[in-house]
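Lab notebook page, bench 4
Experiment: in silico fold of construct C2
Operator: M.H.
Input chain length: 143 residues
Purpose: comparison with the prior construct
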Amino acid sequence: MGLLEGELGSPAVADLVPGGVWFAFLRFGRRLFRVPDTPDADGLLFQYGTYAFDGPAAFTLDLARQFEVSDSDGEHDHYVQVHCELGFGLTPALEALGSFHSWFFHEAGADLEEWAQGLTERAAWTAIRRLKPTELRVYQERV
């Protein structure tokens, strides 16, 4: 989590722009880590949608990195996800975007830059990148 926070710096929420957060997340995503030699051991997730997790519904852009953790026998134990969530006030235009998610896995042989470029070409990204978030949450969870 500290590496992602380092990429983000410590801007005030009012100074954040989604594009800057996205580029920080991609810098974090380019770093390679020692993970188990299994499919889906190191993945990046780009997802958005309207959710009501801890209160009223809000539009959330969630950028996450998932790492597999193995036990002492080398067997899958759990995943750790490091999230960077941007929250936005709910508007009809954001609600109309629906929800979307896309995964990238380093060991799958895909190109990270192509994945990222494809996401930034989505019409939803055009709407999101111009908005000012109302909240930034960086956290880690075991899943």
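Observations: The first strand starts at residue 42 and ends at 51. The CA atoms of residues 42 and 67 lie 5 Å apart.
Next step: discuss at group meeting.
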